[in-house]
Design a protein that fits this description.
Number of helices of chain B: 3
Shape of chain B: rod-shaped
Strand order of the largest sheet of chain B: 1-3-7-5
Largest interface: A-B, 43 and 30 residues
Distance between the termini of chain A: 32 Å
Strand content of chain B: over 45%
Largest sheet of chain A: none
Shape of chain A: elongated
Distance between the termini of chain B: 202 Å
Number of strands of chain B: 27
Oligomer: heterodimer
Structural class of chain B: alpha+beta
Order of helices and strands of chain B: HHEEEEEEEEEEEEEEEEEEEEEEEEEEEH
Helix content of chain A: over 70%
Chain lengths: 164, 390
């Protein structure tokens, strides 16, 4: 359908932008709630602030991801679905699976995941210090408060790498 | 005395009635000269050259070379101990006019061994001595030659193969009714019998015969022919052994690439003929579990000469979970036999052909790297916290 590509592109971009803020809020909320277990004191806004600062390393990570994408995306074979194929869920599933298992696509996914893990841990490092001051926690409590959910998250990313 | 005179006169009269005929039978110098001008102009044997045991005929042409005098012949025959006369001699008188030719035909038979023989033709003159003529004839037991020109190394069960046979006549005479018959247990020959007809001296005729063997056997080629009216035959045994023809066409698929478009796989590549013979009507198609789809359900590459190649493209769909698809390549040889070979082509989920699966290593490497990074992070913080506590 004419113009469909543009709509999809704009929707994806706006969606990503909104999701960035949503995740920022969720992360801050999770850290804030966990810090209650360690009797943390301090406002949610302060937590939101330090989580925002902690995201800064991930900007550098995104730049690396963009470079990798520019290099690898031309090598990705993007299937073109016919009208008949679009009406067949099994065919769509098969084509999606084929797309995700394209060697270039797999390599891009692996690189972005590893970069995400590295910079997410860097952010966690910042967040630990931030939570220590924002919620008045001991270094150990702050490390547990941030470390547990972040380590679980990066373990989940690692698991996805293995089953990809 | 008068009676005696009358008796003498009667006898003389009686003799005078007989004498006109008797007087001609007497050799005279003129009749002897005339018989000297009678000669055998030629003697023709049929067959021209005999086999031992053959029967045939000889026609002797006797010409009267006198320009104005006839001769009378009253006996003619031919033969000796090697060339036996099987018909009757000529025992009646015949007049040969001036410059005329009289033929004498005899039937002959021989059991003699190979060689050149000189049976004597004799012709008796009424008014002179006889004429003797050695009519030379040859006996040669050389048979017709039957040879396979392009002998095949091996046959394939149920596959038709053409053999090229050469029929040659090394004899010094023509043979007739030449025919080649192909027989054998467990074979189908086409044609089973080929009529060649007359084969001149030193002549040769190529003959093609297609053979489809169903089992290892021996093909018997029987060449029959007539030398005059005498039937003869030559045989040749051709063993049929199954195996792989070292020269046969051998199309192989290479440079295979797989892409997907609209859920349809496109397999492209080159079909190369690595054999020594031409592969005709080379076709490529995908087999189950693939389902051929338009536009290239089957791709006809065409004829491929040795070391030649042609590109192909086949399109198909394949259900989820299929990692490789059999691609069939078929071709025909010069006899129309269809040969098929199947080659598996890997279709990765991405639709790109990949070589052996190295996913194990390529997947584990980033996982290991991620685990190391996590351990460094956790270990670093644990160490840092313990140091701060102390």
């Amino acid at each position: 359908m004419p113009g469909m590509d543009a709509i999809i592109t704009v929707s994806a971009t706006v969606g990503d932008l909104i999701m960035t803020f949503v995740i920022w809020l969720i992360a801050a909320g999770v850290f804030y709630l966990i810090s209650f277990l360690f009797k943390g004191q301090g406002s949610f806004n302060r937590v939101l602030e330090i989580v925002g600062y902690g995201y800064l390393p991930q900007v550098a990570g995104s730049l690396i991801t963009v470079v990798a994408a520019v290099i690898l995306i031309p090598g990705i074979s993007v299937p073109t679905l016919t009208k008949a194929a679009l009406e067949d869920p099994a065919m769509i599933e098969q084509v999606t699976k084929a797309f995700m298992h394209d060697p270039a696509m797999m390599m891009l996914t692996q690189i972005t995941t590893l970069v995400s893990i590295v910079f997410m841990l860097w952010s966690a490092h910042i967040w630990i210090f931030g939570m220590k001051h924002a919620r008045g926690l001991s270094p150990r409590d702050a490390a547990v408060c941030i470390g547990v959910p972040i380590v679980l998250y990066v373990l989940y990313l690692t698991y996805n790498l293995g089953v990809m | 005395m008068r009676v005696n005179v009358s008796r003498i006169i009667f006898c003389l009269l009686l003799l005078s009635c007989i004498l006109p005929g008797a007087a001609v039978a007497y050799a005279t110098p003129e009749s002897i000269v005339a018989s000297g001008n009678v000669y055998v102009s030629r003697a023709v044997y049929d067959p021209g050259v005999f086999f031992s045991g053959d029967r045939g005929t000889v026609t002797v042409y006797v010409t009267n070379g006198n320009a104005n005098k006839s001769v009378v012949v009253n006996h003619a025959t031919i033969g000796d101990k090697n060339i036996r006369l099987t018909s009757n001699s000529y025992e009646t008188s015949a007049n040969i006019g001036p410059l005329q030719t009289q033929t004498f035909v005899f039937s002959l038979a021989t059991d003699a061994i190979e060689g050149t023989y000189y049976p004597i033709f004799s012709l008796g003159f009424r008014d002179a001595e006889s004429l003797y003529y050695p009519a030379v004839v040859k006996i040669d037991n050389t048979p017709l030659d039957l040879s396979v020109v392009d002998k095949l190394d091996t046959f394939t069960q149920g596959m038709k193969k053409t053999i090229n046979v050469l029929v040659a006549n090394p004899r010094n005479n023509n043979v007739t009714n030449v025919a080649l018959e192909v027989t054998g247990d467990g074979i189908t020959a086409n044609p089973e019998r080929i009529f060649i007809g007359e084969l001149g001296t030193k002549a040769k005729v190529p003959v093609n015969v297609s053979i489809t063997p169903e089992k290892a056997t021996t093909v018997l080629l029987t060449l029959t022919y007539n030398n005059g009216d005498n039937p003869h035959q030559t045989t040749l045994e051709l063993p049929v052994a199954f195996g792989v023809d070292k020269k046969q066409a051998d199309p192989v698929i290479s440079y295979v690439q797989v892409t997907t478009e609209g859920g349809i796989y496109h397999v492209t590549g080159d079909a190369n003929n690595a054999g020594l013979e031409t592969a005709n009507t080379v076709m490529v198609t995908a087999l189950a579990p693939a389902v051929p789809q338009d536009p290239y359900k089957t791709y006809v590459v065409g004829a491929l000469k040795p070391d030649d190649f042609g590109s192909f493209e086949v399109t198909f769909t394949a259900g989820p979970g299929n990692t490789s698809i059999p691609i069939e390549l078929s071709y025909k040889d010069t006899d129309g036999n269809i040969y098929r070979s199947v080659q598996d082509v890997k279709i990765s989920s991405s639709g790109v052909s990949v070589s052996p699966d190295d996913g194990g290593f390529s997947k584990m490497l980033p996982v290991a790297a991620a685990i190391v990074i996590i351990l460094i992070f956790v270990g670093g913080w644990v160490y840092n916290l313990r140091r701060n506590r102390q």
